[in-house]
Amino acid sequence: MENTLGLEIIEVVEQAAIASARWMGKGEKNIADQVAVEAMRERMNKIHMRGRIVIGEGERDDAPMLYIGEEVGICTQENAEAFCNPDELVEIDIAVDPCEGTNLVAYGQPGSMAVLAISEKGGLFAAPDFYMKKLAAPPAAKGKVDINKSATENLKILAECLDRAVEELVIVVMKRDRHAGLIKEIRDAGARVSLISDGDVGAAISCGFAGTNIHALMGIGAAPEGVISAAAMRAMGGHFQGQLIYDPEVVQTGLIGESKQANIDRLKSMNITDPDKVYDAHELASGETVLFAGCGITTGNLMQGVRFFGGGARTQSLVISNQSSTARFVDTIHMSGQPKVVQLH
Ligand SMILES: O=C(COP(=O)(O)O)[C@@H](O)[C@H](O)[C@H](O)[C@H](O)COP(=O)(O)O
Ligand SMILES: [Mn+2]
Ligand SMILES: [Mn+2]
């Protein structure tokens, strides 16, 4: 799969990031999102592949593009056998978040990215538009920390795995009222908390790399973003666990249905009979082949954001593949006009 998609998937996230970055700092989160969606979809539809969106733009808001179930790629056309080779005709599932951190883009804040994950058909958990309690940690702590344990216990385990004191750990938590208790517990245990307003995909994946000074992500964010994070962590061997959160009283923000019972019923209708199940990265991204691709919109821990210059733009992307066991950083200069200068660094 990876061989046939190759460079093109990088271009998909690059194009989404470039489009969105033009709206950086303009206070228009919906436009920053919309242009990323359009650019991602346009580039995807030029690829010789047979893709289906399993996580996309809004499960319930009738999104016109990159909606769940949309077929993308040239080989989804009728009589595709005539112009696509057998590899290209293999059905693949795609999870997208063309603008992960729309607020971050709108307000010129760090850490927004265009992201997607790909696997063979059925290889990605089609997460409902719910919330998810998440625990991400470095490869050294994989299978040792556990979302069922308290934050205090996990911090001790993490400190041992990383051969350092609890005080030397930095834990990312989304700044939300629902996390008041969690933040207090982490601080009381001695670790340091880095609060983020948005963008928990970047925070989760940052745990996978030493040198980011982020050692874990804890707390509740969105479930679709959890699957994309899990795909990246699965592909690179980091720790990721997620548990759906369906009780509006726990979440305290956003819209996740009218009541806890209504949400349980909705999950049942989606064949999720155990709403409290804890999923690990291999269950959220269970495919034999799992590929993650992201491109920085604004600069974050992992990648630089889009930098425009007269006649072009420069991007940095990250592609993580379990097939080739690589985390590949790709630095690209895009020449759209006749640039006077194409800078080396
Ligand atoms: O920050 C986020 C927003 O994503 P997007 O809408 O694509 O810009 C995500 O990283 C979070 O995972 C998540 O969407 C968030 O926690 C849910 O929002 P909230 O109800 O404010 O907690
Ligand atoms: Mn998002
Ligand atoms: Mn988004």
From TrEMBL:
MF terms in GO: fructose 1,6-bisphosphate 1-phosphatase activity
Top-rank taxon, per record: Bacteria
Pathway: Carbohydrate biosynthesis; Calvin cycle
Any one Pfam family match given in the protein's UniProt record, by short name: FBPase_glpX
InterPro entries assigned to the protein according to its UniProt record, in alphabetical order: FBPase_class-2/SBPase
EC assignment: 3.1.3.11, 3.1.3.37
Record-linked SUPFAM superfamilies: Carbohydrate phosphatase (SSF56655)
Keyword Transferase: no
Cited function: Catalyzes the hydrolysis of fructose 1,6-bisphosphate (Fru 1,6-P2) and sedoheptulose 1,7-bisphosphate (Sed 1,7-P2) to fructose 6-phosphate and sedoheptulose 7-phosphate, respectively.
The family this protein is said to belong to: Belongs to the FBPase class 2 family.
Subunit-structure text: Homotetramer.
Protein name according to UniProt: D-fructose 1,6-bisphosphatase class 2/sedoheptulose 1,7-bisphosphatase
Native source species: Stenomitos frigidus AS-A4
Gene: glpX
